Fold SET domain-containing protein.
Amino acid sequence: MAPPAIVPDANRRERFRDNNGNIISDIWKTSEYRVNKNAWTRALRVKPAREPYRGRRLRQLTQAMNSGGPTDGDTVNSVLSWETEKDQCWVCKRQLNDDPNSCGQRCYDWWRNLGPQDRLENDCEIRPLPWNSGFEGHGVYLKNWTPGGAKMPSITRNDMVGEYVGELVPWDREGHDEYEGEAEGRYIFEGPNKRWLIDAGKWGNTSRFINHNCRPNLIAVPMVVGGRRLITFRALKAIKAGDELTIHYGESYFNRYNEKCRCNAKGRPVAHDPEPAP
Ligand SMILES: C[S@@+](CC[C@H](N)C(=O)[O-])C[C@H]1O[C@@H](n2cnc3c(N)ncnc32)[C@H](O)[C@@H]1O
């Protein structure tokens, strides 16, 4: 049985800002997923008879697509709860079909209230990369300043740090190639079950700015919470105030985009030395 619909707050639109308060252009900050309706409609139209769009799922998806827009809560749920019935919920430790009342919105709210989202949004900030990082852009840093001298944030090993949020697009090799996404797909996180991709090229949360490091301090962990299959981040080691948060993008990432990993250009990670925050 499907968990109750989780309806996103579609009106909460905010721009990303770096630690100087400057708007980072053209990207919207959101704490909720969105469905890229065009990509799903195209995938359903182009390959109706092929995996992964078949049978009951195809009917459910078509129905979902017909019944709502890209910010429809049911549609987001129908994608994220795809084949999660047999998985254990991380919060209540039950299978969804054990006890339908135990899961869904309640467990998902619980997960969000545990603060993983807040860790990224409140304890971290997006900073322009320092000149010696070897590449341009922004990165995510654990704040090393606090208002009014409050306690500095820190992250301990195994802490949950957040969740990768963005637009949900169908996973399909051909559809994926066809679907370039924003920024040529550089912000796409491949979904944990080869059913969908999360593209944070246009919409996303702070985790879209997490850079690659060959010796990362975070790891992406797929998890089911409240019937939703999520990509979450967990700390591999203790992270101090002022440190950059990094993950390993996987072996093929830099080849795919014809880029070069700069973090260990000299055989060791370059010290990411952020400018002192104001
Ligand atoms: C998901 S984005 C990370 C955020 C990005 N720095 C920004 O400012 O938007 C991924 C892109 O960041 C850059 N990048 C991240 N880690 C890198 C690394 N270790 N070496 C070189 N480029 C990196 C690459 O251009 C890559 O395609």
